[in-house]
Specification:
single chain; alpha+beta; 14 strands; about 40% helix; about 15% strand; binds zinc ion; DNA recombination; metal-binding
Length: about 450
């Protein structure tokens, strides 16, 4: 299996190198903006959009022309890569994946990319890296770079410079460890696993919120673009970087642990983007519960649910596992024991009490159990080639195998007494369980909950 991996290090540039890097990043931004302006002009005149090759020709003209001779001082390849980025921005726009490309502003994501491995030299023993027109750069060698170097990206964040080295290497086909698990993402608990473990929220933003507010207020009192304003701005950016670093670290640790210990992970397909849309609404249609919603949005964005999913996806692929996203309907309101769906099941945020059969558990874990069951159902359907189930709990209408220990009306007598037959209690192995057992096992509460209580 081929694995692509990026290794990021902090650079330790000299003053000259820092100035050069700032200049190169600025040149890239200039080229991007000029090309975008050109495309917009051509569109207004009714001409065809220039392709990558056409833009590269223009770039050569700009580099050799009298207006912007300083462009020739920047390395060619990074400038061309900027044009590639613009092409991709347009492609994403036409495919309705993104908004129309916008002009880049100074001070936002300064970066440039060297795509040619032949021009890059990596000297790991001496902790240095050679890049065209920058020379040998020292970097903080925190771990070894594995594999063949494909390209290198230099970027600035919070006043520091970083290098990301993208590599490719052949690895053995990984064998996944452990069984299946469902994950419920929430606010009170960042992530709850169906086996009962949970990750407390980090809330790195909350921790630094007041410091950040103070720094921002101090910045607003300075004369814009003055020396003191620049210093205040640097302070704000440092705080943002620190918040991001803490979150990054936490998410990486959580996703690594989960993906190392599970072969199949089911997760809710939460529309994070919708949830974090402005709660205020528009002037014509003002939003409801603006304050409460914006608080919730802040919390969701702070914890990085989207990034969590992205990391789980690639980490599981590295470890040979699979990620299954299931639609997030009724996962918090369905009883894992009898399948009763009702909003009354969840009177409080933390507790889940089924109004029909009386099962009690932590609400987040019930959500995780339902996600796991929906994931199993989805997997079974994919194997069968049947239609996708619409939501968690809805396939309850389908006949359930009574001999597996669950009836449509309630839990079996064994379960009421707190004992289950050995056959059903068999631990959930890898993803390769027998297909007809999948459904029944995943809704089997005995394995997942010692704390569950049924009183019907
Ligand atoms: Zn119930």
């Amino acid at each position: 299996m081929q694995r692509r991996q990026a290794f990021q290090y902090e650079l330790m540039p000299t003053g000259d190198q820092q100035r050069l890097m700032r200049r190169f990043a600025g040149s890239c931004r200039f080229v991007f903006n000029k090309a975008l302006a050109l495309q917009k002009e051509r569109y207004a005149r009714g001409e065809q959009k220039l392709g990558y090759a056409g833009l590269c020709q223009r770039l050569t003209a700009w580099r050799n022309g009298p207006d912007t001779p300083w462009l020739a001082e920047a390395p060619t390849h990074p400038l061309q890569q900027t044009l590639k980025d613009l092409e991709r921005a347009y492609a994403n726009f036409f495919a309705k994946r993104a908004a129309f490309p916008r002009f880049k502003k100074k001070g936002q994501s300064a970066s440039f990319r060297y795509p040619d491995p032949k021009q890059i030299k990596l000297d790991q023993r001496n902790r240095r890296l050679f890049l065209p027109k920058l020379g040998w750069l020292r970097y903080r060698h925190s771990r070894d770079v594995l594999g063949e170097v494909k390209q290198v990206t230099v970027s600035a964040n919070g006043g520091k410079w970083f290098v990301s080295i993208q590599t490719e290497r052949e690895v053995e086909q990984p064998v996944p460890n452990g069984g299946a698990v469902g994950i419920d993402l929430g606010i009170a608990r960042f992530a709850t696993l169906s086996d009962g473990t949970f990750y407390a929220p980090l809330n790195s933003f909350k921790r630094y919120e007041s410091a950040l507010r103070k720094a921002q207020q101090a910045m607003s009192r300075k004369t814009k673009f003055s020396r003191n304003w620049q210093k205040a701005k640097a302070r704000v950016q440092r705080l943002h970087a620190r918040i991001g670093n803490a979150r990054h670290d936490y998410l990486h640790k959580a996703t690594t642990t989960i993906s190392q210990n599970h072969a199949l992970v089911c997760i809710e397909d939460l529309p994070v983007r919708n949830m974090s849309k402005s709660a205020a609404g528009t002037t014509e249609q003002p939003g409801k519960h603006v304050r409460a919603k914006s608080g919730l949005n802040k919390a969701i964005l702070d914890q990085g649910g989207f990034e969590f999913r992205r990391q789980l996806d690639y980490q599981l692929a590295w470890h040979g596992g699979h990620l299954i996203a299931v639609p997030a309907q009724n996962t918090s309101q369905t009883c894992p024991c009898c399948g009763h769906v009702s909003a009354d099941n969840r009177r409080t945020q933390a507790r889940f009490v089924c109004v029909q059969c009386g099962v009690e558990d932590n609400a987040d874990r019930v959500g995780a159990l339902n996600v796991l069951r929906a994931g199993h159902a989805r997997l079974a359907c994919e194997v069968n080639g049947a239609v996708m189930p619409t939501a968690a709990g809805t396939h309850r209408n389908a006949p359930i195998r009574l001999d597996a220990g669950l009836s449509a009306v309630g839990p079996p007598p064994d379960f009421r007494r707190g004992r289950m037959s050995k056959r059903i209690c068999a631990p959930l192995g890898a993803a390769r369980v027998r297909e007809d057992e999948r459904r029944t096992r995943s809704i089997n509460p005995s394995r997942h909950g010692a704390r569950m209580r049924c009183i019907s």
